[in-house]
Amino acid sequence: MSQKIRAAITGVGGYVPEFVLSNKDLESIVETNDEWIFSRTGIKERRILKGEGMGTSHMCEKAVRELLAKTNTDPKEIDLILVATATPDFIFPATANILCDMLGASKALSFDLQAACSGFLYGLVTGQQFIETGKFKKVIVVGADKMSSIIDYQDRKTCIIFGDGAGAVMLEPSTDDNGIYDSIMRTDGSGLPYLHLKAGGSRRPASQETVENREHFVFQEGATVFKFAVTNMSEVAKEVMEKNQLKAEDIAYLVPHQANRRIIDATAERMGIGSEKVLVNIEKYGNTTAATIPLVLWDFEKNFKKGDKIIMAAFGGGFTWGSCYLKWAYNS
């Protein structure tokens, strides 16, 4: 009887820009202060990508080059590169296409996936299918966003939250019972009014009016999004645990989307997961949207041991949300 093939994470790479935008810096830009920001979000600083003509692909390249070096992988060995992003370099071509050219990944299929803050998890379970069917052997999933390109730094409700960054993982076949076990993904398009970009798409193309009305920046109704995020992130994570007969004590780590420290704490509490098992780096990077979960994996990679049971959970604009259960596949 043949062993089940699972898609396993076999390496992690990450990149955050050098420029640090601290809460103190924001005090000189909008009416806010460090104590107010930190107490409500858990954020102390965020990274911003600076430089003429620098887009999301440039951060993706840095993260993936590190990943290739760590896994000793030639770019020409890559079968698929999937980039989850809400801030592509261009409407088309896909940022993943541009990234392949930057890397010399000349044999890879590549495409972008857009599910806002849930994008990385959506990408992970998409890549999983290509591995489990035997179609591909090496799949790279990248979560990356240059949120500073769509944030209004006159809006103190949103500009304090977001930062720029990229994280990437390698997926490869595993037959030793480690890898991705299960996932649940959800969508509710009625969430559109509460979190979206008003203009720039086909419904409201860019015009002098949309630019003057500052409609090319993120709009968020924070209280509604907070409520939906806490309820849905925790419920879907609990559902994955119950479906796989997992108790809180079985879980080595919870890797939550880094949207807001209060959302993270509330989600962990509802799941019954102790704070010592909840991985958090929001204080350093803010909300990097699709990049948050892979950046947590990157920051805490040395904590993980082979066989560790890990739950990931995310919630994003759309609304999109989901949770994934995996067993870690290697010791760092």
Blueprint (SSEs and pairs):
Blueprint: E1 6-15, E2 19-22, H1 23-27, H2 34-41, E3 45-48, H3 56-70, E4 80-84, H4 95-103, E5 109-113, H5 119-132, E6 139-146, E7 164-174, E8 179-187, E9 195-197, H6 208-212, E10 218-220, H7 222-243, E11 253-256, H8 261-271, H9 282-285, H10 292-299, E12 309-316, E13 320-327
Parallel strand pairs: 4-5, 4-6, 11-12
Antiparallel strand pairs: 1-7, 2-3, 6-7, 8-13, 9-10, 12-13
What would your notes on this structure say?
Helices cover 30% and strands 25% of the residues. With 332 residues, it is of the alpha/beta class. The two termini are 31 Å apart. It has helices at residues 23-27, 34-41, 56-70, 95-103, 119-132, 208-212, 222-243, 261-271, 282-285, 292-299; strands at residues 6-15, 19-22, 45-48, 80-84, 109-113, 139-146, 164-174, 179-187, 195-197, 218-220, 253-256, 309-316, 320-327. The protein has 2 domains: 6-178, 3-Layer(aba) Sandwich (Peroxisomal Thiolase, Chain A, domain 1), CATH 3.40.47; 181-327, 3-Layer(aba) Sandwich (Peroxisomal Thiolase, Chain A, domain 1). It is globular, with a radius of gyration of 19 Å. The chain has 10 helices and 13 strands.
